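Write out a sequence, fold above all:
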Amino acid sequence: MAINEERYLTEQLATRNDSIATVQAEAIDPARYVEDVVARSGSSFRLGMRAMPKERRAAMYAIYAFCREVDDVADEPGLTADKITQLSEWRVEIERLYKGCPVRLTTKALLQPVRVFDLPKAEFLEVINGMEMDARGPIWAPTLDELMLYCRRVAGAVGMLSIHAFGETRPPAADLAVSLGNALQLTNILRDVHEDAADGRLYLPRELLEKHHVVGTTSDALLADPSTALVCAELAILAKQSFAEAARHLQNLDRRKMRPAILMMAVYRRTLALLEDRGWEHLGQPVRISRAEKIWIALRHSFFS
């Protein structure tokens, strides 16, 4: 049972006098469940999802819930072997999904989107592969190739699923999915350097660390090294290049259908700009976009794009 699903069922049980088996047997609405997962996450991705037509929005909620649950497997405390086992079980569940007989709430919510929007099975499996990279970790100073493979799996694969939900799969939609996925994930990495280091993770690429002579092997040493700022600045250039690539691809696609991607690109570009304004020397100072600014971004790109 997925972590989020277990918590959800426990909450349902807490409000009633039924057994878990009874709660499970009563056909909890999978669509409501995945919507609750998104609502509780507080993710910026919800902003883009809410701009979609109902059926496509439901597909994105289910895709997001799947990503959230497999990510929880990788991130929650536990033995590596147990995490690998749980991710293997998710691979089995994806096979069940494509045979039309899923057993989890999230994959039940995915059943209709898979049929209607032709969501590619390989991309669900790639997301799981990406989470396994984390689960086998912690990742520390990957090569640039390893980092970009990680981005392709945990973000690009989500983009590939999303363009099917958006209804825009013509070329160069796949290229946009990958380039925007890279941009978003690199921005996340830059935003979370301090937090990740405290958890024993470092996604900054080895080549840049060596280039700028960052030699710290512990999180404290890394964060104290002034040259780490130079590494982040250079990785930010790569993120901006990925945003620019995505914007070029977008020119040849239906902007109305791609509006969720446009909103996410605007939010994350703004996040990257705020990080640069804060300065890479202050990695411990969090950067967040206010709710009011997010609403303005949504309005701007809903009515003036």
Remarks:
- The domain at 1-136 is CATH 1.10.600.10 (Farnesyl Diphosphate Synthase).
- Residues 144-166 form the longest helix (23 residues).
- The radius of gyration is 20 Å.
- The mean pLDDT is 89.
